[in-house]
Amino acid sequence: MFKKITNFVIFFTFFASLGFADIINKIEISGNKRISSETIKVLGDVMISKNFDASEQNNTLKKLYDTNFFKDINISFDKGILKILVIENPIIEDIEIVGIKSKKYIEELSKEMSLKNRMSFTENQLNKDIDLIKNILKVSGYYFAKINTSINKNDELNSIRLKIEIDQGKKAKIKKIVFLGDKKIKDKKLLEVIASEEHKFWKFVSNKVYLNQQLINLDRRLLESYYRNQGYYQAKVNNSFAELDDSENSFKLVFNIDAGDKFFFNKLKLDLPEDYNINDFAKVEKIFTKLNNQEFSLDKVNLILDEIDKIASLRLYDFITAEVEEKIIDKNKIDFNFKIVDSNKFYVERINVLGNFQTIEEVIRNKLIVDEGDPLNELLFNKSIDRVKSLGIFKSVKTQIKNGSNENLKIIDLTVVEQPTGEISLGAGVGTSGSTLGGGIKEKNFLGKGINLSTNLEISEESIKGKFVYAKPNFNYTDNTLFTSVKSTTKDNLSDFGYKASNIGFSLGTTFEQYENLFFSPELDFSIEDLSTNSNASKNLRRQEGTYEDFYFNYGLNYDLRNSSFRPSSGNKTTFFQELPIVSGNNEISNTLVFSQYKELSKTNKMIGKASLYMKAVNTLDDSDVRISKRANVPYNRLRGFEKGKVGPVENSDYIGGNYITTLNLSTNIPGILSTVENVDFSYFIDFANVWGVDYDSSINDSSGIRSSTGLGMDILTPVGPLSFSLSQVISKESTDKTESFRFNLGTTF
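Now predict its structure.
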């Protein structure tokens, strides 16, 4: 009996479902005013002659609701007639955001919101947008923001005007930063590691003193990275949270740290394929030897990986990668196995140069080391982009690598944004005994060919200097730069230096890469100089009066190992320059060495330190006296706080310069000051210099005293061009030295 009843139920249900499943013969749509019936049919996926059952009805409802066009939908289906009754959501005529002064900020909020003008309005979307705005405000530190909305309805048009009122409130200050747990490192040091800062009254312009979740997430990564570089291989920041202080609208930011034990490098192994030459990886093996039993450091692991990448960049192995295998031994020791394997072999199919409306494409392509058809080597590719940036004619250089015609080929889109390449400059210096005024015109991209043209004029109380320079890159398709210059100088140094000199001349030279990162710059230089002295000059100076014709062969060697020639943060650069006489009245030989080292002092706030050593020696080949106009003076930019040329040996109140110069300049940028103000950079510097040596017998006080100064610099990118200031305080000097405490420089672009 039960079995019969069950079969009946199944039979009835089957035919009942067949009875509901019917074909649509007619579709009636009502309630719609703005959205056409045909559009609703398409959106709901309904049509004449289509089968329609309960499942299809649910699908149609879901599809129509998903459009957000409708507030309510009712569907009925009887005897082949499908009836759809809709109530449309109102359309948004206008969205007004008030309470925030910054128009740019309002524009950004509007872009992020899902609700837009001429869209359908739903309460659900509005609530989502309110939550979105609150989260955006929190990123800027506004944790106590209040948002109110008002809706002005137009029933006749079924439209609304939406007003969003934002009360940002006060920014949530970080009152205190606390480090808990097994931290092993002092709080003072950890505060230097993270980006967030405790609020102090003198930090009123810094955004880092306000609570910011993105910044907190960054802080966690910075802490873990720092600990791992200090040997704490398993260090973790278990959690971070903020405790609200209601009375002061401020928070206490807490980081819970588990440093664990220190770890040490144990065995470091290089696993090479059989056909690889171990000698190519000799530098890696040397690093292994140095690191054995040393404290673990993530930076040292990256040093090994960088060295492996350098081997690839030399094209010894175009397609290799290193897989790092780590194994903990004896609780606090780690074995590392660097397994070298072949990586995917990609070649450059095509390079598309985009955005160069004024610059000839050839100028950009000439800077590319990686060309079409070459292996896609990451290091060489990055170096190519850096070379394009170093042209100084583009605001930005961006790349996108896309798939080519097959899996081994890649297409590179290289997009540049051109910037004004002409420059008009004005400069001035204010010292204890006079001032200077200078100016110039420069064009870095003449005719769009990357040709560099410049002319400048400098006028002071004692001199007039003028110079014109022409530099053509990739001359005659040789990848060499050809340059020539014409110069004229009149120095009336009778009052301070005991002589007057008029010089006119020209030079012709070239620059090319001799070896990897080593550039050679030979030059021929011809000049005619007329030298005279005053009646008070010493006999040593008076006997040098006359006209001199000089023909010199000069050359420079430039070895550049910086990570970037455009705002470097690490590496070094060495330059050696020598002037050799071919025909000369005095046969002076000059040697100049400049070495600069860059180092990232803090990854948190991008503090970059720079140390620069400058050395120069001037002598004659026949032991005669060095001409007064060719004697060495400390470069103006290497000893701030002192007037140009007015340090060193003095004879009869004349500054005669020396045979030898040594300077040392230490500087660092100062991040965080006026961080909310764009285009303003601060720096701190310490300068040391010494000039000495007199190559003829006299009563000259050949002082070997070291001059030094310290001070602050400020660079501002103004609408009319770059403006720089320096304020200096002399630390040590000689009694005859003349000082200046302040100097500035102003330039503009066209």
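The longest strand covers residues 499-515.
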